[in-house]
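JOB MANIFEST
job_type = single_chain_structure
chain_count = 1
residues = 272
[input]
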Amino acid sequence: MSELLLAHEPAIRLAFFLAILLGMAIWEMAAPCRRLEIPRLLRWSNNLAIVVIDTLLVRMTFPIAAVGLAVLWDQRGWGLLNLIPLPEWLAIILAILVLDFSIYLQHVVFHAVPALWRLHRMHHADLDFDVTTGLRFHPIEILLSMAIKLGIVAVLGPPAVAVLIFEILLNATSMFNHSNIRLPLGADRLLRKIVVTPDMHRIHHSVIPSETNSNFGFSLSWWDRLLGTYRADPAGGHERMAIGIDRFRSRRDLRIDQMLLQPFRKAGSLEP
């Protein structure tokens, strides 16, 4: 089973990625939450180009992906979950929870440490908020994130299927909670008891620092609630809140060359 997953992992992940991206894009056009200010062609072409660069760099930099490492560790019996006799279903659930919590903590750290924030702020500098914002991360941040993920997998020794499920969920929920869709208030209130909804995560992309430093979760909303970083609503309301950061607010800053150079440019006065 593990070898089968490893052989088909790229195709499985790509299929889910394309299906969710297309589905969320159609949903955004059918039921948008906010009026977008920037032409979609400008933002989408550059945001998706970043995805291609990130993917190629990860493939070239790391000889093994997280799923492959989980398979190798399982074969050698390494990692905590390979040392503790647990039913496979329980090991899968525990692994997904630990990996998701780790992503939450990583996100908090990338906001708190100035050098890491300079990398992560490219994600926040998007001037609109839609499904492609959830894919817009600086390549250096992606490489660091991959190294951290491999370290966690090495310590944890999770089942390979758990890592694959987590990778798909993380990608899917990132596109979902960054999407410009309008959910009925009742549905949003119910969903965010478990998962991060677009209305919940949009607050994290506010220009107001106290709002930027809230709602760090990507998949599960529990970590923000448990650790006191949860905020229910933006001060100015969802339709009027300003998206982005104060330093990079021109359309020129949305070009891929400027996005790649952004961590090395002077920081703005409004740093979270």
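[summary]
The radius of gyration is 18 Å.
Residues 64-264 form one domain.
exit_status = 0
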